[in-house]
Structures are given as structure tokens and as C-alpha cells.
Amino acid sequence: MEFQLPDGTRLALPGGSTGADAAAAIGAGLARAALAVRVDGELRDLSRPLPEPEGRAPTLEIVTERSGEDALALVRHDAAHVLAAAVLDLYPGTKISIGPAIEAGFYYDFEFPAGVTVNDSDFPALEEAMRAHIQADERFVREDLPVAEALERFRAEGQPYKVELIEDLVRAADPDHPLETVSLYTNGPFTDLCRGPHAPSTRRIKAFKLQSVAGSYWRGDARRQMLTRVYGTAFFSKGDLEEHLELLERARANDHRRLGPQLGLFQFSEVSPGAAFWLPGGTEVFNSLVALSREMGRERGYVEVKTPQIFDSSLWRTSGHWDKYADNMFVTEYEDRRMAVKPMNCPGHCHLYSLRPHSYRDLPLRLWEPGLLHRREPSGTLHGLLRVRHFAQDDSHIFCTEDQVQQEVANVLDFAFATYRIFGIDVRLELSTRPEQRIGSDELWDRSERALADALGQLGLEYTVNEGDGAFYGPKIDMHMTDSLGRSWQLGTCQLDYNMPERFGLAYTGADNAEHRPVMIHRALMGSYERFIGILLEHFGGELPVWLAPAQAIVLPIADRHLDYAAGVRDRLIAAGLRAELDDRTESVARKIRDAELRRVPYMLIVGDREADAGEVSVRRHPGGDAGSVPAREFELRLAEEARRRVLR
RNA sequence: GCCGACGUAGCUCAGCUGGUAGAGCACUUCACUCGUAAUGAAGGGGUCCGGGGUUCGAGUCCCCGCGUCGGCUCCA
User: Fold this and answer.
1) Does the model's ipTM exceed the 0.85 cut?
2) A260, A265, A266, A267: CA torsion to nearest 10
């Protein structure tokens, strides 16, 4: 057998050689370090015979600790098996389900025996049991078993989830090539149904930690058994593990739920779960974002409207929300009328459109409303500002003709990029196409999907396609960002809708003097202002750019005799449209500086005798420190310019 | 909504196996008038999330509810 190594050389091996043989043939050191082997992209156990090449020499790569994500995923999967083994040691009779490696670790889902609950106080004992399996240097032994035998074995062991998994594998197999065997992996006393591969032995898990327990539905189905999921992570060294834990710690420090109250931006209260109380500082941030939407929207031909907060149920019947979304709406009744608080702006905008006649000359009509929405989200889903019951979207509905769709979508994308650029955010685009459950003809879907793809092409944008993930009424383009901690967030969306205009009977008079149905485009760029602020806070670690900072500058007089001059400096800044404050407390300058630094006020203006005499301010930047003295007037112009241009840093 | 954990002063937290609530910061007052990350002293402040129960006695134990957190489902 001949294989192609990563360095381009060829490796010849006798027939029946294993991955371990291949590693040994390359070098003794590599043989010791080897965890698995990758043949033509497929990851395999070292102990398995290499596949017989057909035709050209397949590529072969030995996976070691230094192989990055592949190797980490492998060892984490190993750790999941070890966790399951430890759980069975400590809690015999536990039913095991699945335990994969995930992004930053692994988990395993268990159904513990009746009456047994496991929580993080059980981690030390579990970790101890895991360490025993690791120190025992248990080999991972693969076994390919006929389906019937495997089923019998797991039935006998009282492992119904494994039985169900095998039955599903059989069912999912191609009828022409029915599933004959399944693979099992055994380490020490523990055997699990598993596709593999695994490292040679448990000893390769050098550092691990159990992190949390959580509930999870079997197969992600809310109607099925709730299992207990144990999360953990594993690395090849203690140092890597500690580094990872530090990253988590940093993420915790940058958590918007901590930063918000700390910086005086917002707070939550039991009296309205899932709804923020916006403090003065947070309200400034919020308003700055709304102002940005408004300003940019005006430049791009959007018109602002205001629609009611509460509508009669008849509107929700027309829109379809009464059938499809009723569980998520706040409903109220008076004088025998059933009313509901709006969870979305689109029905109101459709109704507003329908109130007056429209000519093709009026289109596209781009309605914008930073409307207040309420959604009855289940209590368990609330999460700071990222998932709330009361929020406002930077929401627009564009009514246009079929011919205008592509250009309008291109305009939306251009608008989106212009917006994200201001925050220094890069986005990935996803085009979601027709789902199984949908309305409208295939011809219509062909056209609308093409319109979106053409708009993306027109701007030369890269995107991935999400087959079948579109809304039931139309395809969409979603915009995702990755934050400074590597987490992904959906921000904007641009959805084509042929359904809502139909339901509302919307029309415009065409050049042919006949009635035509407009197409509607739903679009949001920041998503909701609440969520966007949450994301921004975490992304910037609380260090908001000057144009967004609640207090842009704070004047710090050195002694009380400088108060008049200081107040004058502040007043001129405010008159120039800036957000300036004065720290008039009788405190040391060091103290005033410290407090302003903790609030992350971008500019601190220290004024004492020297500054008052010269008409200057001594500028201290956050972060950055002392930036020297400048005439107060010059600083004012500089700050105004920085805020106006929305400079990022 | 479901599973698990948690809920003590405005904030961060201490309070062992049940015996009448404590610290730091913040706040108020007084003194200090200060040059680039905490001046000092004194003082005020708590239905120990809410409601039941066990007990001579509950912040502490049990039950129910609410909220928060970690997830699942869902989602801007």
C-alpha cells in the first residue's frame, strides 16, 4: 500500500498495516505521540488496519496533540466516554445516551436512576472516578458487532437509548446497503456505541474539568424524556486548561449583565421579568443607536412611521399571528374586544399601507419604525438583554414591485454593511432557501431566491447557502457576526415576503392602470437595540466608542476654587451638543480619576490653577492616560468632530 | 415551558452541625482643598425573595410560589 504524506513524500507499507504501523514507519517519536490517523480526510483509530488504496495513493497524516482542533475533539470525546464510565461506577443503573465533543469541550446526557439527582457538588467524586480510569491507562478497543448482537447486548444491559440509536441507524441506512454492523468502543469496564475514533488509551487525557449540569431533552425534542447533561472540557496540558478557564473568566467579566448595572446603563427587576429598566446612561446609548438608524435611514429614502401598540384580534387573524404566534403574545380584553400587544411591526405596517391608495410611482415605500414590541417568551429562555420580553427593533418593511426586489435587497445589504462598518463589525452572510413547509408556487420561489442571490452577486459578496432554512413565506439573507470572544451572533436579516401583502390584500396601481400586489421585504440590521447593546458591550468589553459613551467627557476640578471654571468648560461642551459631566465632589483628583476610569469615561479633563489661567484643559484619555494640555476650545472642537464622525477608537 | 443550582444592606459577599444578622465598597455628616486609579473619622441602612410548615426557637430544616443563573426547546 502506498500513501501520500503531508510533506509530499510517499510511504509504502505492507498490506494490512495499521495507523500505528504507519506512524512507526515514519518515526519512533511520532509513534509515541500519535493519537489517530487521518486518511483522505477520514479520522481513524491507530489500531485499525488502513483502508486498501484504490488507484492513486491516499493522503495520510498522523494526528498528534499538535494537530489542533481535530486532536482536541478526539481527546474530548475520549473524556466523554471516561465520564460515562465514571457515572456508571458511581450510579449503577444509569441509562446513557449520547456524549459528543463540542466547540469548547464535551458533554454526556444521562438518565439517572429514579431518585438520583446530580449537581456540581458531585463533581469532585466524579472527577476522582474519571481520574481512576485515566490513570489505569485503559485502552480504547474497537469492536464491530452485527446489528442484532449489538441490539441484544444493549437490551440486556438495560440501555434503551442505545437500542433506539441503533434502530434509527438501521432505519436511516440506504436500502441498497443495509447496515450490517455497528462499532462499539470499550475502555476498562465500559462499553459504548460509538462511531469513533478514539485515542489509543485514556491516559492521553492530560487535563480535564467538569463544568456544569443542565437538563436536555432526549433528541432535542421537548415532548420526550428530560435527561441530565454533564458538561466538561479537556486539554492536553494543565496550562491549556487553565488558559481556557481564564478566557471564561474574562468573558464573565465582560458579561453585559455585569457591565450594564456596573456602568449605570440598565438594570432588571422582578417586577417586570425580561424587560430592562434603562438608566440615564443606557438611555443615552440606546438613543444614540436609534439616532444612527434614523439618520442613515433618511439618507437612504426611509420614512419613519408610528403605529399603535395594541391591535384588535382581527388584525392578528389577518396577519396569521392569531393562529401561528398566539402563544407568544400578550392578550388583553375590554368591552368585549380581544386585543393583543404587538410582537412584531409588520402587521401594523401592512395595515398602514392599506389605509391609503398607492401608485407604482410611490414605490418602493420604505417604512421604518423603532417600535416597542412585547413577546411572551417562556421564562427559562430569558437572558439579560439578549433575550427579553420587551424590546425595540430597528425594523423596516419595504413595499416594492417585483422588478424592484433585487435592487432593494442590494440596497439593504449595502445599508447593513455601512452600519456594521461603524462598529468595526465583520459579518458572514447566509442565504436561506425554501423550506419543506411553505406557501407559494415553485416558480415564485425560483424567482425570489434568484433575486436574493443576484443581489448578493451584484455586490460581489460571499455567502453560504442554508438549504431549506427560509421562512415559510419567503427566502432570507441573515447576517452573523463573531464577537471578540469568538462567539457568533445573528444581527441583521433581510426577508422576502409574498404572503403578508396577499393576506392584507395590499395593492398598488401600475403604469397599466391595473391593480398589482406589492412585494414586502422585512429587514432589521442591528436586530433589536436591546440585544445589539448587549452584544456591543461584550464585544467592546464595556469600552464604548466616544459617540456611544453615555458620558463623553467629565471635568475634574482639582480643588473647589476651580469649580466655576470647570462648570464653564462643561457647559460649553454641552452647548456644543456633547455629553459632558462635572465631578464637583470634594474629593482628591486621584479619587475622581479613579471613579471616572471605572465608569470608562473616554475623556477626563483635569482643571486646576494652570488650566484656569491659560483657558486650557489637561486631557486624560481612557484608556491611554495623560494626553497633555490643550486649549479648552480646541478640545471641544476635537471631541465634537470625533463624536460626529463616530470614530471607533 | 422543562431539568438542575442559587436568592442575606444599593453592590460584592461572610454567617459551622437551628439560639435573636456582619464585612468591604456605595450612601449621609464632619474635617481635609488635594495635579493623573481609593484622605480620614463618625453615622444611617436589612420583611435574610414571598407564603406556608416543623420546632421552645428558622437566614439556617421541609413544602409551594416568584425571580436569577447554567443548559434544553424556542428566538431579535
Assistant:
1) yes
2) 60
